[in-house]
Write a structure and sequence with these properties.
The structure holds 3 protein chains of 3 kinds. By secondary structure, chain B is an alpha/beta fold. In chain B, 19% of the residues lie in helices and 35% in strands. Chain C has a domain at 20-54 and 156-332. The chains are: A alpha/beta, B alpha/beta, C alpha+beta. The interface between A and C is medium-sized, with 26 and 26 residues.
Chain lengths: 191, 321, 347
């Protein structure tokens, strides 16, 4: 479970297929596939006939109008961008997977001026965080502890409960700036 | 402390632009420039009709950057409560009025990849200012404008001339030409925004269709000016002012409160902005909620009312005023 | 009124000081002997004794030149302190017009603006700037309009877009901030960028403030005061540079409190912008050393009481925990327990 009550973090309310949408565009990563399968169980498979499904790695065992597997997240994001440029109003975007993945895919959509409130999201998989070091601006993926060491500048960073949709990252702030060398030991907080 | 930023204006011109539609050009009495505004903004016009103070909201239709004058267009409404009748029949060039600062409750989402305007009748006015603004900002827009007939429709020739027929499409009810909403909404690029202004029925029809075609509500914008509906006479007890007033058939609670010399906050006077929300301390009767601001659960609670458009069917209401 | 501009620093040797006249114009943020969050907004109209910080609505004071120099240094090191999302261009021009008009109206001997249609002529005498440009054409200015004018105006500036019944932090010039990052917060809505503030969410402060601001009207700006404390007169207390200013907090001793510990007041003003329908959020920072503060006996008594009775969560959030007890102790010498008059102005 993700930590609740962080005001700046998006609320991932679930994929909940919008049956009024004329097309459905899915971008899924890892356990995100399960969220799609749960929707098929809940509302039936008919929506798949008007769905494009983009996945990182393994494809789900369903029949959709179109399915495509990307080898990595960056490759999927490029493809998602092209799909969105060509998409029409009435297309609903669904994102599921780890928070870092949802955030990066949502960023692509925001850049196409799609309002984030219209995007349906469901968190699945690890609760590890993607964190931006506020000092050097470098982003470290898959952060499981706080504090952690910035992969770029090496400062000891406290992971604040403050999330930027535009950066798709939490904020990391130096924990021992006042007295360098006094950082507490890392504790696993985001398994 | 409340600061009055209303402006005294004078009617510089009155032009009959179509059957039952007049345009009024307003300039400042003190000669100062009028404030710039954003497309979609309206002003509240205060007019002294004999002893009666009327205050009605009208969309600004002139160029938002033209600081020499504001222009509004007013449709003469049958069975009008008096505002439009006063402007059409009694107001002359040179007469003075008071107007509020511009207020925008119908702004464009300038992030949009494309903007589609749908206007019905006099609902064209906010779009005229918006199109002027969007032209300056090189935004991508198109207008679909439905009117009763060629005689009653205002500005359609000018608009087609200025923006070209491919951007301004016109439809006349009597010629059985209707806005092909389904076809228009089916093929717009993702990131398009839709704006509707016109009769309530038209707005509901277009928004329902858009929703059925999968448009998310974040991309749908509408403005309806709700004239306060007439109703039965009832009493309003104003607890804090220690006064009881009578609200007439053709009067809103807000107007009756103002007539009694009591200041109540307001902005849009059309049930949209929430500024005049007032706590209800008691009610003998049923509150007729005519606003579009309160959530259904607020309306059901009976504890709050928008006094600019809502009223009571029954004997009396007690308000925290 | 001819302001005598000072040359001073907000880093390194920290030569910043307030003249005696400048102390008395400080916008002291406590109107009573205690402090808690509230939607403490009032109309932003001229108020207070002559020369007070509320006299002109965009305030210019003796630190103007030095603050503008410090801003330029910050931007050189970190250009991300000034950003605007692409849809904010109309708002940028709104801000340029507002600041030029207010500064020219408030300080005609220092600034002047002449408009001839869209051909504008701006003169900023203290900074030696004489600029002719076309209003609406960004290529006639050396920077984008918001950056151009906020390099010539004291305080931080955020342009907040209004959509979907919310406010969005979509542009800003932020170099004198109390520990928040524009680069991180840009694009956030009102609730999101206030996310890290403790207590206030539960109190409903932000819900009420948002409702109020959504109906903010043209020509009716409002203001409120906010505060924190800073060690050394440092304007740039950004999270980005925390490793630079964080260690300052360890240098406070009972002997240097009067010189090192500063009350940092933010005069926040909010303006509805005409072209963009956005809101300009001005956050003007004023710094006052403890030894300057105690020269106004009312403020000395009151600040002692406020700091003593502050809820610990708030002290923690504002980063005061390490030096608060020492400062209370130091201030207690100036609090004889006498009653204070209400309101913020000196007696």
């Amino acid at each position: 479970m993700l930590v609740q009550g962080i005001k700046s973090r998006p609320v991932y309310t679930g994929l909940a297929i919008d049956l009024q949408a004329r097309r459905h565009l899915f971008a899924l990563e890892g356990e995100g596939i399960e969220a799609l399968l749960d929707q098929v169980k809940a509302v039936g498979a008919q929506f798949l006939e008007t769905s494009d499904i983009l996945c990182v790695g393994k494809l789900p065992d369903v029949k959709a109008e179109y399915m495509w597997s990307a080898p990595t997240i960056p490759v999927l994001l490029n493809r998602l961008n092209v799909n969105l440029i060509n998409a029409k109003m009435g297309t609903r975007l669904y994102l599921s997977g780890t928070e870092g993945f949802i955030g990066q895919a949502m960023k692509i959509a925001l850049d196409q001026n799609i309002d984030f409130n219209s995007i349906r999201t469901e968190h699945r998989g690890s609760t590890a965080r993607r964190v931006q070091c506020v000092h050097c601006k470098g982003i470290t993926d898959d952060v499981k502890t706080s504090p952690f060491t910035c992969a770029h500048c090496g400062l000891n960073l406290l992971v604040r409960d403050h999330y930027s949709r535009r950066l798709a990252a939490f904020q990391g702030v130096c924990i021992d700036a006042e007295q360098p060398g006094t950082a507490p030991a890392p504790v696993v907080m985001f398994p | 402390m409340s600061i009055n930023t209303d402006m005294a204006v004078q009617v510089a011109a009155i032009i009959q632009v179509a059957e039952k539609v007049k345009r009024f050009r307003l300039v400042r009495v003190d000669g100062l420039p009028l404030p710039v505004f954003s497309g979609g903004a309206h002003i509240v016009v205060s007019m002294l009709d004999g002893d009666l103070l009327r205050r009605n909201p009208y969309s600004l239709m002139s160029s938002p950057t033209d600081q020499t004058a504001y222009e509004i267009s007013v449709l003469q409404v049958e069975k009008s409560r008096g505002g439009s009748a006063f402007l059409h029949e009694k107001l002359n060039v040179g007469d003075k009025l008071t107007i509020s600062q511009p207020l925008n409750l119908f702004p464009c989402d300038v992030r949009g990849r494309k903007h589609i305007f749908m206007a019905g009748g006099i609902g064209i006015t906010p779009f005229m200012a918006m199109m002027d603004q969007m032209t300056r900002e090189s935004s991508n827009f198109e207008l679909h404008y439905a009117m009763r007939d060629r005689k009653h429709g205002a500005y359609w020739q000018e608009l087609q001339q200025r923006y070209a027929a491919h951007r301004v499409k016109i439809y006349f009810d009597v010629e059985k030409l209707f806005i092909p909403t389904d076809a228009i909404l089916a093929n717009q690029p993702l990131g398009t925004h839709l704006y509707v202004c016109g009769p309530s029925g038209m707005i509901d029809g277009v928004l329902n269709k858009a929703t059925a075609l999968g448009w998310p509500k974040q991309n749908l914008h509408s403005e309806r000016f709700l004239a306060p509906l007439p109703g039965d006479i009832f009493k309003a007890e104003l607890k804090r002012s220690k006064k009881t007033i009578t609200v007439g058939t053709h009067q809103s609670i807000l107007e009756a409160v103002e007539a009694a010399g009591i200041d109540a906050p307001y902005l849009c006077r059309g049930g949209a902005c929430g500024q005049c929300e007032t706590s209800v301390l008691g009610c003998e009767g049923i509150i007729e909620h005519n606003d579009i601001f309160l959530e259904p659960e607020d309306k059901a609670s009976g504890k709050t009312i928008m006094i600019c458009v809502s009223r009571v069917k029954g004997q009396a209401i007690t308000l925290d005023l | 009124m001819n302001i005598k501009f000072k040359q001073e620093t907000f880093r390194g040797d920290f030569t910043y000081r307030n003249s005696p006249e400048n102390i008395r114009r400080f916008p002291f943020p406590f109107h009573e002997d205690k402090y808690m969050y509230s939607v403490n907004m009032e109309p932003h109209v001229p108020a207070g004794p002559k020369g007070f910080a509320f006299e002109s609505l965009i305030d210019v004071d003796e630190h103007y030149i030095s603050e503008m120099h410090d801003r330029a240094l910050v931007l050189k090191e970190d250009p991300l302190r000034c950003q605007a999302l692409p849809h904010m261009m109309a708002g940028q021009w709104d801000v340029l017009e507002l600041i030029m008009e207010q500064q020219a109206a408030g300080y005609p001997e220092h600034f002047s603006l002449t408009k001839n249609g869209d051909q504008w002529h701006w003169i900023n005498r203290p900074m030696g700037i004489d600029q002719k440009f076309t209003f609406g054409d960004a290529s006639t200015l050396p920077y984008e309009p918001m950056e151009y004018i906020t390099r010539q105006a004291q305080g931080d500036f955020c342009i907040v877009d209004q959509r979907d019944n919310n406010l969005w932090m979509d542009a800003g010039m932020v170099t004198t901030q109390a520990d928040w990052s524009l680069d991180f917060d840009i694009g956030m809505n009102f609730m999101e960028w206030h996310g890290p503030v403790p207590l206030a969410h539960q109190m409903g402060v932000f819900d009420r403030a948002l409702k109020f601001l959504l109906n903010l009207q043209q020509s009716k700006p409002v203001r409120r005061l906010n505060w924190t404390m800073t060690i050394n007169p440092r304007l740039d207390t950004s999270p980005e540079n925390y490793p630079k200013w964080g260690p300052d907090r360890m240098t406070v001793t009972p002997e240097n409190i009067g010189d090192k510990v500063h009350l940092r007041c933010e005069l926040q003003s909010l303006w509805r912008l005409p072209r963009s329908n956005a809101i300009l959020f001005v956050i003007r920072c004023y710094l006052l050393k403890m030894e300057e503060l105690v020269q106004v006996p009312k403020w000395a008594r009151r600040f002692h009481r406020v700091l003593r009775d502050l809820p610990p969560e708030l002290a923690d959030y504002k980063g005061l925990t390490k030096f608060r007890p020492m400062t209370i102790d130091w201030l207690s010498k100036y609090d004889d327990g006498a009653p204070t008059s209400s309101g913020i102005f000196p007696e």
